[in-house]
Specification:
about 35% helix, alpha/beta, about 300 residues, 10 helices, 16 strands, 6-stranded parallel beta sheet
Length: about 300
Amino acid sequence: MEHHDNKEGVAILRKERNLWVVGGDLRQVKLAELLMDDGHWVQTYAMERRPSPPELPGSDTLRGIEHADCVILPLPVTVEEGILNTPLSDQKLPLKTLMEALQPGQMVCAGRVTTELKALAQKRGVTLCDYFAREELAIKNAVPTVEGAIQIAMEELPTTLFGTRVLVIGYGRLGKLLAHRLKGLGARVTVSARRYDDLAWIEAYGCWSEHTEQLDGWLGGYQLIINTVPAVVLDGARLHDLDEGTLVIDLASRPGGVDLEAAARLGVKVIWALSLPGKVAPVTAGAAIRDTIYHMWQEMEQ
């Protein structure tokens, strides 16, 4: 099948598709606009409160969704069990209701797919793809997440990041980018990790290292702690070790990496910064989702 490249250099198949973008935040709004710009027929649903141009089509019902070549659901697909993530809508749309409106053989693309959605798709005979499981999207999402975290730190700290003692917990995609960006701003960066090869890389890139399992009693002296690990690594005992005024930013997905009840009890300021790409850079985040979906289509049609 022939294809051409869009302005970002991503191959677009020469085939106009019938696409429905259902639910989600500003990322999905921008995604719908980008898909329209690429020549696809786009319909949106459960986005009635979007701050968007009037030319973006919106439907009041799911009528017609059964004819879609692909239905694109948000990232994350749910924030409440069994209910689609629809922050730009007043309605609550059960996943079961949505899936029952589809026909066997249709394609659904969603972000951070749940076990329930997998079961519903299998029962309905729908092809389900998780675009958040793609490594290219995870890497592209890390960039606005890191920039958003640094923005929060700059707004909340009474000091510059230059010279600030910062601890980054975790050395995955976010941890790597955070350490690099913060060090470039002159922060005194320590990174904790569990793997000894990660600790070696941390030191090789000029940061101090700590083993995550050995942080007990060593958390004093940091003015900023940014957690990237999606497990409770900052429990009550560790939070008790923090100096007064330490800012904690948690970038981990639910259930998060900080004991929020203990933090409130101890007076520790914690900012749980979820879905930063959609908040700080929705155009970039929407483009990243679009590109990833195009990649999946291309691989399926080869």
